[in-house]
UniProtKB/TrEMBL annotation:
One of its GO terms (molecular function) is L-malate dehydrogenase (NAD+) activity. This is Malate dehydrogenase. Its EC number is 1.1.1.37. SUPFAM superfamilies: L-sulfolactate dehydrogenase-like. Pfam families: Ldh_2.
């Protein structure tokens, strides 16, 4: 089966409309759809639209995730707040919580807001980006279903617990370090299952401490507790696995102990009878107003100077490239915008088809609905540039390579095909 590139606005509108159909308020559905699509725009496809189903859609359908976004502020000071999210969708609550932290930082220098009884919030870096865009240093993290074993153990206990930091710079992107505290996160294993690829050595151990390369076995084993995703640094102490384990523990404590949220084994999401139950998590969001320390201009210049000096490091091979955190996401964003959307693989096409059929969203037509290839018309040809026009009724842009999507045609230096 073929993968197709789908424009971001189509995916975002589809995700929003699916969520509205299953009972989510339009303004909250729009936030979830934006954050899922933003993950794809940044190249974090493991946490993008591909997770609408099985995670959010299926959990709402099973009645283990609330569609109404309700929350209470249970404790508040000028610089802190504790939110109870009552098993609501994690993305809208997290956006509200990070904005509260930023507002407090803007007024008092620092702000920290924690949530309990919230649910999976997607990419941590979305929320730290909000802080950087508003002149703050942002930090956030969340706990998650058990995945990481403590160093020396084989039982998965800690979530893949992402920890993200962002701040503005005078470069054309904000620094944003946004990653799990495990070597690979669950979304990556799901991706390896979809692509039928073996899991690389060093990512996983089973309950005998042995490696396992079968992605499906790992995914099932994570839920059963027979497999674990190793912390940053890997197994044992030799390569510093205890550092990743330590950072995952910091995230667990900041997510759970300040807000009095659930932690570790309580996040398996299984009821005593073995059926799926809610996974109510904790998150923390922190913002520091740069202007409380120095001018924003001085901060950005200094941070940018650090980025630029890092890039001057002597390289092992001239062709190697030195990146700083946030740079790849910025490039992916521009590249994907230029290419006109995100590649949707066959497994994700099936999930989209199932949601479309169940919710009667027949107004959405995707390229894989097309029955036959039809020729495209070249309207202009220059060296390395063809301007082509799609025939009437052609379904979406299906150019899968470096092309510029322009309405009903594309500019490209390759051959692409269109289906009807
Ligand atoms: N909600 C959850 O429970 C949860 C759990 C785990 C991960 N996640 C999310 O999944 C996403 C992916 O996580 P991941 O652990 O796979 O991330 P990853 O391993 O892809 O690392 C991404 C980070 O590393 C930086 N980076 C990549 N290559 C670099 C290089 N060569 N030099 C310098 N920096 C570089 C990126 O800019 C980015 O900040 C994140 O958005 C994370 O928040 C969410
Ligand atoms: O899937 C989870 O529970 C957490 C996170 O999104 C991950 O991919 O590891």
């Amino acid at each position: 089966m073929t993968s197709y590139r789908i424009p971001f606005d189509v995916l975002e509108n589809f995700s929003r409309d699916v969520l509205i159909k299953i009972g989510v308020e339009p303004q909250h559905a729009a936030v979830v759809a934006d954050i899922l699509t933003e993950s794809d725009r940044r190249g974090h496809e493991t946490h993008g639209i591909g997770r609408l189903k099985p995670i959010y859609y299926d959990r709402v359908k099973k009645g283990i995730l609330e569609t109404a976004v309700k929350y209470d502020i249970v404790k508040e000071t000028s610089t802190t707040a504790v939110i109870d999210a009552h098993n609501s969708l994690g993305h809208p609550i997290s956006k509200i919580a990070m904005q509260m932290a930023i507002d407090k930082a803007k007024q008092h220098g620092l702000g920290m807001v924690v949530c309990r009884n919230s649910t999976h919030y997607g990419i941590a870096g979305y929320y730290t980006s909000m802080a950087a865009a508003q002149g703050c240093v942002g930090m956030c993290g969340t706990n998650a279903r058990p995945s990481i074993p403590p160093t020396g153990a084989v039982e998965n206990m800690l979530g893949t617990n992402p920890l993200a930091f962002a701040f503005p710079t005078d470069e054309d992107f904000d620094f944003n370090l946004d990653c799990a505290t495990s070597i690979a996160q669950r979304g990556r294993i799901e991706q390896y299952v979809r692509e039928n690829r073996p899991v690389p050595a060093g990512w996983v151990i089973d309950d005998k401490g042995q490696p396992c390369s079968d992605a499906q076995q790992v995914l099932t084993g994570l839920t059963k507790g027979t497999h674990a995703l190793l912390p940053l640094g890997g197994a044992g102490e030799e390569l510093g696995g205890y550092k990743g384990y330590g950072y995952a523990t910091v995230v667990e404590v900041l997510s759970a102990s300040l807000s009095q949220a659930n932690f570790l084994r309580a996040l398996y999401g299984t009821k005593p009878d073995g059926s799926a139950g809610p996974i109510e998590l904790g998150h923390f969001f922190f913002a520091a107003n740069v202007e409380a320390f120095t001018t924003l201009e001085e901060f950005k210049k200094s941070a940018g100077d650090i980025m630029r000096e890092l890039r001057t490091a002597k390289k092992a091979h001239p062709e190697d490239r030195i990146y700083v955190a946030g740079e790849k996401e910025c490039e992916a964003y521009h590249e994907q915008i230029k290419l006109g959307g995100v590649i949707i693989e066959p497994a994700n096409q099936k999930a989209i088809d199932a949601m479309r059929a169940e919710q009667g969203l027949t107004q959405y037509v995707f390229p894989w609905d097309a029955k036959q290839d039809v020729p495209i018309t070249m309207t202009e040809e220059k060296p390395n540039l063809k301007v082509c026009k799609y025939p009437e009724g052609a379904v979406q842009n299906m150019c899968l390579d470096k092309s510029m999507y322009v309405g009903d045609g594309c500019y490209h230096a390759c051959s692409c095909h269109v289906r009807k």
